[in-house]
Amino acid sequence: MKAIIKPGAARGAVSAPPSKSMGHRMLICAGLSGGPCRVEGIIPSEDLQATLDCLSALGVEYDWQGDTVTLRGGDVFSSPKEPVCCRESGSTLRFFVPLFLLGKQKVTLTGKGRLMERPLEVYQNLCRERTLLFGREEDKLYVRGPLQPGLYSLPGDVSSQFVTGLLFALPLMEAGSVISLTPPVESRPYIEMTRQAQALFGVESVWTDENTLRVFGGQRYQPRDVRVEGDWSNAAFLEGFNLLGGSVQVENLIENSLQGDKIYKEYYEMLQNGCPTLDISQCPDLGPVLMALAAAGQGATLTGTRRLKIKESDRGAAMAQELAKLGVQCALEEDRITIPGGQLKAPREPLFGHNDHRVVMALSLLLSRVGGVIEDAQAVRKSFPGFFDTIRSLGIQVETHEA
């Protein structure tokens, strides 16, 4: 899809879409409960459909009407006989590997795009230590359990999705387990979101110290009806217009949310007041929008950028490549990106979305100032399918054309 965006200021009030991160977690907890459960606040996206596909592979039946998904049935200890496709959702893949390891039969997982390039060494090492099957081919992953309770030692400076995956599975075993994280622990807010979702469904774990989680065994997820809160990650793109001369009010956000990306409000204030150094190790999904807004403003230095390389695209490199078309030359280092400000100009060629929803949305902000075209803009369907309709409602002129 091609998106043609004309310069203009965004104005108005809009609701933040429901949190995709919490949507994954609530759907999984509901699916593991046996139901019936109603999860409200689920908007169609490729990632959430991937999670529902995996639940279906475990025998969970669901009905999706409007923004509400009703789930019932399923057997988490069963092993799907057919390959299970996780689409392009890294969250889905990492959340379900431990769940599929609960069964005793081999399970094959597949994906699309760069999914099977995403790092999985944490699970690979855990399986090797426990003599469980973990095999990888170019576009497939094979696992076989049964997973056993015990001590699970993980590096804390990799994706929190590995911790979440274990948190989903370990309470279902009869005996308790311990997850020990080697500091520093990155993306801790996402771990807390998982624990919050589990607590709503009657499953608990406790921190015995800042790096050790005790997971009680013999627990069962209890059926609940829940609603997904608004998404601070996607709200960041909408409020980003306010740094470009717009006036946008984003509603449907919970101020005491555990979502780590709510720090964007603090970071945006810093961007408006100078050329700050911003640590994104706890909020890597904000990388593209912060790079965009820094380029349109007074510049910034982002630290903790190492994990941008392993997202839907190499986000640091992708944004730097596109910002160069807008006259901004970024400096990329192993764990740091420097973005100069005050150089933004209209591009002479189309920008490219790199099959990455957050790159597309970040570039859209900049084109609302200088105008231009984004190729591969359909990537927004991964998490925020209504993005272009939403910014149209704020007065931004956008034409979209299917390829």
Structure, described:
- With 403 residues, the protein is α/β, with parallel strands linked by helices.
- It has twelve helices and 22 strands.
- It folds into two domains: 2-17 and 231-401, UDP-n-acetylglucosamine1-carboxyvinyl-transferase, Chain (Alpha-beta prism), CATH 3.65.10; 20-216, Enolpyruvate transferase domain (UDP-n-acetylglucosamine1-carboxyvinyl-transferase, Chain, Alpha-beta prism), CATH 3.65.10.
- It is 32% helix and 22% strand.
- Strand 20 (351-352), helix 11 and strand 21 form a beta-alpha-beta unit.
- The radius of gyration is 21 Å and the shape is globular.
Q: What would a concise description of this structure say?
A:
Helix content is 32%, strand content 22%. The protein is of the alpha/beta class and 403 residues long.
Keywords:
single chain; 403 residues; alpha/beta; UDP-n-acetylglucosamine1-carboxyvinyl-transferase, Chain; 2 domains; four-stranded mixed beta sheet; 12 helices; 22 strands; 32% helix; 22% strand
| Fraction of helical residues | 25-40%
User: Considering the protein shown, what is the CATH homologous superfamily of the largest domain?
Assistant: Enolpyruvate transferase domain
Spatial extent as radius of gyration:
21 Å
Strand content: 15-25%
C-alpha geometry: globular
β-strand number: 22
Nearest-integer average pLDDT: 96
Termini gap: 5 Å
What is the topology?
Elements (H helix, E strand, L loop, with lengths): L1 E4 L5 E5 L4 H14 L3 E4 L5 H12 L3 E5 L2 E5 L11 E2 L4 H11 L6 E4 L10 H9 L3 E4 L3 E5 L6 E5 L5 H9 L7 E6 L5 H13 L4 E5 L2 E4 L10 E2 L4 H8 L7 E5 L12 H9 L4 E3 L7 H10 L3 E4 L11 H11 L5 E2 L3 E4 L11 E2 L4 H14 L1 E4 L11 H7 L4 E4 L2
